[in-house]
Amino acid sequence: MSVESEPEQLNSEADEPGWEVDPDDEWGLAVVATVGRQLKLRREAVGMRTADFAVRVGYSEDMVRKIEGGRRIPRPEYLDTSDEVLGADGLISAMKEDVEKVRYPKRVRDLATFEASAVELLSYGSHALHGLLQTEEFMSALLGSQRPALPKNQLERAVAGRMARKKIFQRSPAPELSFVLEEVTLRRPVGGKDVLRRQLEHVVEMSQLRNVQIQVLPTDRWDHPGMGGRIQVLKFGDGTATGRMDDGYGGRLVSDLKQLRILELRYGIIRTEALSTRESLAFIEQLLGET
Predict the structure, then answer these.
(1) Which of 48, 113, 225, 238 is the most buried (most CB within 10 A)?
(2) Is the bond preceding 23 in cis, omega lying within 30 degrees of 0?
């Protein structure tokens, strides 16, 4: 948008849900408050009234006040336009990275931080496909099945946060990713058969990546140490690691060497019980043909 012309209408996306600040996210609240304060100070420094600024950026005056007051997460395009209108030379646009993180739930954001620096990931899931392997429509249907039902804005935040974690597939050098999937998670028609079919196609596509190993654990192989739920281990370049399991340590992340050895032992046993990667691919392709 040119700063010399006024927009024909206010941005129609300004009041969409999903951009509210999570009241329980202290870091997120601090980031949004700081960004809002900086925007207000720069606007006042150039002598521009709120109403005039709202017209220039194409948002309602009420929305500008919410953003400057730290009550609303500004969209990336809002920050870019504000940077141009206020002549900030990129300083406002540079805030987009932190603001983007705020939109994702804190729990998802913390996990994404670990995944972003991991050199190896080991994951066994008992009830659902790992989030990194899910398509957007599959995860939306899966998260939408929660009860009590998530409000629309929280559902959108959760989906956006999970999709953001997929940046791990774009890293270079690529981390080694190992997934053991329960057979039932590949059969359950989350979102309907069409959604499941596209999800299976996506898993097949992911299995073609050189750094990704996908194995299927047949339902009849029940005698293994994963009956209590998920097991995950993340290893880092400095030799440290962290992990968790649903039925141990309260499901929280742990980094004690003894605890990690137990997690790796359990995962190793589960992995040996699963089909090989080649057998697993053939199994998934067979399911795809049946769906």
Answers:
(1) 225
(2) no
Q: What is the pLDDT of residues 234-260, one digit of tens each?
A: 999 999 998 888 876 666 778 888 999
d(CA 49, CA 41): 11
Q: How far is CA 125 from the centre of its chain?
A: 17
Residues for the chain: how many in total?
291
Pairing of strands 241-245, 231-236: antiparallel
Write the single-letter amino acid at 195: V
CA–CA separation, 222 vs 264, rounded Å?
18
**Amino acid 9: pLDDT:** 38
CA-to-CA distance for 119 and 227, rounded, in angstroms?
A: 27
**Weakest-pLDDT range from 67-71, 107-111, 214-218, 257-261:** 107-111
User: What letter does residue 20 receive in the DSSP assignment?
Assistant: B
Strand partners, 35: none
Q: Is the pTM of this model over 0.70?
A: no
Q: How many CA atoms lie within 13 A of 202 on its CB side?
A: 19
Tokens of 212: 């990704």
The answer, yes or no, to whether residue 3 has pLDDT greater than 70, is no
Q: Phi and psi of 274, rounded to 5°?
A: -80, 165
Alpha-carbon distance of 245 to 253, in angstroms, equals: 8
Cβ atoms 179, 130 nearer than 8 A: yes
Residues 6+ apart with CB under 8 A from 44: none
